[in-house]
Amino acid sequence: MDGTLIDTEPHWMAAEIALVEEHGGVWTPSDAAAMVGSSMSVSAALLQSRGVRLEVDQIAHQLNTAVGAAVAAGVPWRPGALELLRALHAAGVPQALVTSSFGVLAAPFAQTVGLFDVVVAGDDVTRPKPDPEPYLTAARLLGVDVRACVAFEDSATGLASAVSSGARVVAVDSHVTIDPPAGVSRVGSLARVDLPTIERVAAGETLDLRRSV
Asked: Which of UniProt's keywords are assigned here (predicted)?
C-alpha cells in the first residue's frame, strides 16, 4: 500500500519527525527513508532509541492517527496504480492488499477502493515483513498457490517477504532506491504496467520496465 499504490511515505516521515521532536530528539529525512517498509514494531523500536518515551502501541496510535488524517484529505495515488487495480478487477483477477500498515489504515483504504478481495495488514500476522507470512497468508485467503501470484513491492523489506514466499515479484521504484535480487522484475512506475506485462511476469519472465519492453 504505502509507497507502491499510494504516496503516503511523506506523511509517515512527517509524523515520525514530529513525534521524535516532540520528545526532544532529532529525526532526519534519511532516518525516515531507512524505515520505509518496516513493521510497526521495528519502527517503534527505532523511534524509542531516539528518545520517544512511549510504548509501541502508543507510538502506533500516534503515527496511524497522523497518517490517517492526512490520507482522509484525499487518497494520494501513485501514477498508474488505480488504473492497474481497476484493469485487474475487470479481468477477474483476485487481488490482495498486503501491507505493513496496521488494519486501522489498511481496512478503510481497501473499503474505499473496493477492488481488493483480501486485506492482510501488519497486525494481522504474527511475523510481519520481511518474513514471508504476510504473502503466504494472502495466497491462502485468496485460495491460490503463492507461486501463481505476482507481488509488487517498493522496499527491501517488502521484497524480502515477497521473494521468500515464492511469488513472482516486481520491484517498483519509489522513495528509496532498491537493488532487487536476481529473478525480480523492475519498473519505474506502475503506469508502465498492463495486463499482458503481468502475464509475462507470472509466466516466469524477468523484466526491466525502466526501459522499453
From this structure: Hydrolase
